[in-house]
Specification:
heterodimer; A: 381 residues; alpha/beta; TIM Barrel; 2 domains; eight-stranded parallel barrel; 8 strands; 35% helix; B: 253 residues; D-Maltodextrin-Binding Protein, domain 2; six-stranded mixed beta sheet; five-stranded mixed beta sheet; 9 helices
Chain lengths: 381, 253
């Protein structure tokens, strides 16, 4: 507005030229100030420790699409302050590796670095196939045998880079869902072949890196369904295909849906204790020594989703679940809650799984967990 | 199996084609407004067998009538509503949908017909006119609900605001009616239903909501004519008092 006014002033031409120059400079400064600044680099800072009475407590973070380093750092600080020593995070192969083999490690370096600085143990879920490693017009979840070695090489490189900083790798996600298997028929035999490629490659790169199989999606689809294969049948199929010895732990998803944490498990029912049915299959296949890591769990308190409970029930069931796992499941090393925070709201039922809003407002469940883990009196920073 | 994927791909392609198309001529010529809703959310929509009932059902019928059409309902799970719209299985969603700016690349929303946000409920003789008036008072909320989150945020602004938690919205409101707390912050549907069922509670709802959560109908982004006509129809229903009557019928005053 001020720039537009100078032509009406009584300044002589030279002064007017000076004013015009100043105005141009001001406009340029304004334009530059409007342009979004490059994300500030955030130092990892001195290493912190997680103080907790609940060593199996974890959260699945959603930092994959979080581009601002301070938000990555602040998220992980809140996780530590809640008393959760573990995070599970998705590291998409497709986002990082180019066809020439080069890997953009910047974002995973940020996540792993901030997690390490906050004393958190990281479980890395690897998946999503780059375009160059899959046929044209196939989705990101499409990974066929022709690219197993490429995926294994990436997993090995990941394991080597984050030696001592990442505890475990999960090979894919819910491979018993057709959606997660590139919209193809899903078979346990195919997945075991993938494990057969990945496991030795990772171990050769970093013998200390744990390789987790799964995590299978709990479901009750009938045999022959185009959408999914029953998780219990799938696990039996994995063992029949020779999966034993090709994974150090089984990743599992244990959602409570509308049931309390201690509701009895049944093959025709989906609830938190379905994990016990997975465990039975492992024991029946002589794999009792292999632990289970629950990498997704929890309840939803959306007011209308049919699979949700009331907010107060969600809090109680979650705490009961941690009690139950600690008391009854010595083979379970982790119960990670889905999901800590989303970068942006979905404005639908998934928002009601989270512990912290996109604006970093903590929900009452966060505070309940903080109390539960013995951190209720610790001031947050 | 292969056939399933062919059908899926065809549906996706169809969705792409329909998204930007103005389908009003086809709707008008068919004389039918195909309405998608999730019949598991009473009192907005529920179904006894094939017959749906609720505020959204009444509203959809009234909107169709304003447009000179007949409403034809198709039921979907909540998760599948938007896919049903974008793949052309229905013309409009009238299903207690919260306006989601993130979806506006694919869908357009009508003006809101209901606000399901968090409302303050106080005794009828209370002097409080809003959250800012509650310093030094006690506020009841449902443990873990959005009202609880909002109340904690207000505690940072009002040093003497006390927050009491209860296991359900009904318990929250009963506590205010009993005089054990000064006010309640609950979702507007719970508040209206409680006031409807406890007409002698001595409580009142304060408008506007402390936190807004507007419900609107949704159409495909290309259906500009349908959107305009639905907005006109909503305005007409509001002017005639029919919208208010429907809302009172299902949700109370």
């Amino acid at each position: 507005m001020a720039c537009g006014m100078f032509k009406y002033s009584f300044f002589p031409p030279r002064r007017m030229a000076l004013r015009a120059g100043l105005c141009l400079a001001a406009v340029a400064a304004l334009v530059l100030s409007i342009r979004p600044p490059a994300p500030a680099e955030i130092a990892f800072g001195p290493r912190q420790e997680v103080h907790t009475t609940t060593p199996i407590l974890g959260v699945h973070t959603r930092l994959t699409d979080e581009v601002e380093p301070w938000k990555i750092q602040y998220t992980l600080r809140l996780v530590r302050q809640m008393g959760a020593p573990w995070i599970v995070e998705f590291f998409p192969w497709a986002y990082y590796q180019a066809e020439d083999g080069s890997v953009a490690w910047d974002h995973p370096d940020q996540v792993v670095g901030h997690a390490e600085a906050n004393g958190l143990r990281v479980i890395a879920r690897l998946g999503y196939t780059p375009e160059w490693a899959r046929p044209p017009d196939t989705p990101l979840t499409y990974l066929d045998a022709g690219a197993y070695d490429d995926f294994a090489a990436f997993a090995a490189a990941f394991a080597a880079r984050y030696r001592g900083r990442v505890a475990a790798i999960i090979v894919g996600n819910e491979p018993n869902l057709s959606f997660e298997w590139g919209y193809r028929a899903t078979t346990p035999e195919d997945y075991v072949e993938l494990l057969r490629a990945v496991y030795p490659a990772v171990k050769a790169a970093n013998p200390d890196m744990l390789v987790l199989a799964g995590a299978l999606a709990p479901n009750l689809e009938p045999a022959g369904s185009p959408w999914a294969m029953n998780d219990l049948d799938y696990l039996r199929g994995m063992y029949a295909a020779g999966a034993a010895g090709l994974f150090d732990g089984l990743a599992a998803h244990a959602y409570g849906l509308t049931f309390p944490a201690d509701a009895e498990p049944e093959p025709e029912l989906l609830n938190f204790r379905r994990v016990e049915l997975l465990r039975d299959i492992m024991v029946a296949n002589g794999d009792a020594a292999t632990p289970i890591y629950i990498t997704e769990s929890g309840w939803n308190d959306h007011p209308r989703w049919t699979m949700a409970v009331r907010p107060a029930q969600r809090i109680q069931y979650t705490l009961d679940a941690l009690d139950y796992a600690a008391a009854h499941w010595p083979y379970v090393k982790l119960v990670a809650l889905w999901a800590f925070r989303y970068p942006a709201p979905t404005r639908s039922y998934p928002d009601y799984f989270t512990l912290v809003t996109p604006e970093f407002v903590t929900k009452p469940l966060y505070d309940a967990l903080r109390d539960y883990s013995g951190n209720g009196d610790t001031p947050r920073s | 199996m292969r056939r399933t994927w062919v059908v899926l791909v065809a549906l996706l392609l169809l969705a792409g084609c329909r998204a930007n198309e103005d389908t009003w001529p086809q709707i008008e010529s068919a004389g039918v407004l195909r309405v998608g809703l999730d019949p598991t959310f009473p009192p907005f929509a529920a179904a006894d067998g094939a017959e749906a009932w609720g505020l959204d059902v009444d509203l959809a019928r009234a909107l169709a009538a304003e447009l000179g059409l007949e409403a034809q309902f198709t039921y979907f799970g909540y998760d599948g509503l938007y896919d049903a719209l974008t793949t052309g299985q229905v013309d409009v969603l009238v299903s207690a949908l919260v306006v989601a700016p993130e979806r506006t690349q694919d869908v357009a929303y009508t003006t809101a017909y209901f606000d399901a946000g968090q409302v303050l409920v106080v005794p009828t003789n209370s002097a409080a006119g809003g959250m800012a008036d509650l310093d030094g008072q006690s506020l009841a909320v449902e443990l873990g609900a959005l009202g609880h989150v909002e109340a904690r945020a207000w505690q940072e602004r009002l040093a003497a605001l006390t927050v009491a938690t209860f296991g359900s919205a009904d318990e929250v409101l009963a506590a205010v009616a009993a005089g054990t707390v000064d006010a309640a912050l609950v979702d507007s549907v719970s508040a209206r239903l409680y006031l409807r069922d406890h007409a002698d509670s001595g409580l009142m709802r304060l408008d506007p909501p402390a936190v807004s959560e507007p419900y609107a109908a949704a159409v495909r982004i290309g259906d500009r004519t349908l959107l305009r006509r639905l907005d006109d129809a909503l305005a007409a229903l509001e002017r005639s008092g029919q919208l208010e009557d429907m809302t009172r019928r299902w949700l109370g005053p």
